[in-house]
């Protein structure tokens, strides 16, 4: 480092030799120019890139703060039990069921589209007996829109031996004319504004449905009343 400085000083002191020597200095700087230029070019683009990132980040953060995402809303619109029967054979009892359900998913956000990446639903009877699980189709939603999703739970669930709770609940609710079925849903979704996707949201949805007994004409006439489900952990 010190030597070139001395040389430069030497050139300054000897202007006559300057012109002849300077090209050599220019040559050496030209030789190192490509790497030097490449490096400063990379620096330049890196600075621009960083600046753009920071600006985009600030804009997204500002928009996010201004338009705080609102929780989705879920409703059970229709629910029909075409079969709901507890049968005993010896010690062993089982519940046969066929539940057809229409749910509506509402995206109340003015600025965000929603993209459901996963949506699973579990049905259980009387909090005691798990009936079955279904994977609902994935879907995308525009802002301020509602999507209807129909699904069916059908099959037979074995009542654990010695568990009286299901039988008791079944007898009581059959007399009341309505069966209480709980639907729990586990969703994974992302919000999207123009091209920017949010992190994953994993809300849990809980719907308690009172569905007319398929064998009770009075209840069937009264029908099922649509309910709003509870949505937890929309964060
Ligand atoms: C319902 O269960 C009873 C016994 O508990 C049985 O006799 C009847 O056949 C069953 N009905 C259906 C539709 O499965
Ligand atoms: C019913 O259960 C008892 C024990 O809890 C058992 O000894 C008996 O064999 C069972 N009967 C049938 C029909 O499964
Ligand atoms: C369940 O009910 C629906 C309509 O109520 C019917 O189309 C379907 O065949 C039923 N499934 C079974 C297994 O009975
Ligand atoms: C049918 O349901 C009504 C309520 O909708 C209830 O009051 C009545 O007891 C039920 N009838 C039978 C036979 O279970």
Sum this structure up briefly.
This protein is α+β, with helices and mostly antiparallel strands.
Number of domains: 2
Q: How large is the share of residues in beta strands?
A: over 45%
Instruction: Please tell me the CATH architecture of the largest domain by its name.
Output: Sandwich
CATH third-tier fold name of the largest domain: Immunoglobulin-like
* Helix-strand sequence: HHEEEEEEHEEEHEE
The H-level CATH homologous superfamily of the largest domain, spelled out, is Immunoglobulins
**How helix-rich are the residues, as a percent range?**
25-40%
Give the rounded overall mean pLDDT.
85
> Compute the gyration radius: what is it?
35 Å
- The best one-word shape is elongated
Largest sheet: 7 strands, antiparallel
Distance between the termini: 58 Å
What are the bound molecules? 2-acetamido-2-deoxy-beta-D-glucopyranose
The CATH C-level class name of the largest domain: Mainly Beta
Derived from helix and strand composition plus strand pairing, the structural class reads alpha+beta
Q: What is the number of helices?
A: 4
How many runs of DSSP E, i.e. beta strands? 11
Give the low-confidence spans. 15-27
